[in-house]
Specification:
NAD(P)-dependent_oxidoreduct, 12 strands, alpha/beta, 11 helices, aldehyde dehydrogenase (NAD+) activity, Rossmann fold, about 40% helix, Nucleoside-diphosphate-sugar epimerase, three-stranded mixed β-sheet, seven-stranded parallel β-sheet
């Protein structure tokens, strides 16, 4: 039997859809107040179970019937205020899943992030071999994903069969305007600025497809970057604007401008109570050039990634 944690999330729901499309029955974990996504409603191959990765007692009975575990559940935030929750869900929650997998002899596929990877050597793309060097100034999300990977490696050292995947920025129409979809909302609403940064992007369907292929292999104790293409934000914003039929951003947001912006928004959030739309971490990441190497996953699975331009067209048509 297959268990998917984070089953109501963007990636988790796509993964479950692909699994059940292949006729497989899935136990899907959800929190009590989480809503079942539209793409999974009325799917009779899904057994929804109320549980929490931070409350392992609620999961013990589930694991008695499970042999394969896709751990997609995670908390995502680049707001420093969320550090405690990030560590609790991403590190402690993963430790609980690892322990349950060890106790019940389950095979685990853990969804990490490119945020947990090291920095590339000068002139090189970031690969799975680039080790993450501890940096106390790194944003809390990156720290939480790195430490969650350490829990998986700890499990592997204790005999766990496990694989780690590090997806780049995951996009897809079913994200709507939430998560990575907020980029599309920003451009659609006429945001006039772009930054000089770059990062990897990948379609959610390709991430789920890669995960299933890796789980069904005999591979263990390996990690894989799952990324389609490296995109500069200017190119990304321009293509999104074209898809929506709106004016593309033409003004470059300089680092000093972003610095002023996140400081001002942080100050005003004290009085408004609203989360700032730009934080120090998001400002810094938007100007960083991060290029990722996807050769390992292509060699292992033979996957042909959907071009990001095709994904952008599909998303903008759906969200028009």
């Amino acid at each position: 039997m297959i268990l998917v944690t984070g089953g109501t999330g963007f990636l988790g729901s796509e993964l479950i859809k692909q699994l059940t499309d292949n006729g497989l029955t899935v136990i899907a974990l959800k929190r009590e107040k989480s809503k079942v996504p539209a793409i999974l409603q009325d799917n009779k191959l899904i057994n929804w179970v109320i549980g929490d990765v931070n409350d392992p007692a609620t999961l013990e009975d589930i694991f008695n019937a499970v042999t394969l575990v896709y751990h997609c559940a995670a908390f995502v935030s680049l707001n420093p205020k969320d550090k405690k929750k990030l560590f609790h869900v991403n590190i402690d929650g993963t430790a609980n899943i690892v322990n349950l997998c060890l106790e019940n002899n389950c095979r685990l596929l853990h969804v990490s992030s490119i945020a947990a990877l090291g920095e590339a050597k000068k002139g090189k793309n970031i690969t799975e071999k680039d080790l993450w060097e501890y940096n106390s100034k790194a944003h809390a999300y990156a720290l939480s994903k790195y430490e969650s990977e350490m829990e998986v490696w700890r499990g592997i050292s204790e005999g766990l069969e496990a694989i780690i995947v590090n997806p780049s920025v995951i996009i897809g129409k079913n994200a709507g305007f939430e998560g990575s979809g907020s980029i599309f909302k920003l451009v659609k609403n006429g945001f006039p600025f772009f930054t000089r940064g770059a990062i990897g992007f990948v379609d959610v369907t390709d991430v789920a497809k890669s995960m299933i292929q890796l789980m069904n292999s005999e591979i263990s104790a390996e990690r894989y970057i799952i990324s389609s293409e490296n995109y500069h934000y200017k190119q990304l914003f321009t293509e999104i604007a074209e898809g929506f039929g709106v004016k593309a951003p033409t003004k470059e947001a300089k680092p000093w401008m972003l610095g002023m912006a996140w400081r001002a928004l942080k100050f005003f959030s004290i009085f408004t109570g609203k989360e700032p739309s730009i934080t120090k971490d998001t400002a810094e990441s938007s100007t960083t050039l991060s290029y990722y190497d996807n050769n390992k996953i292509i060699k292992q699975t033979g996957i042909v990634f959907k071009p990001i331009s095709n994904s952008i067209t599909e998303i903008t048509q759906y969200l028009r």
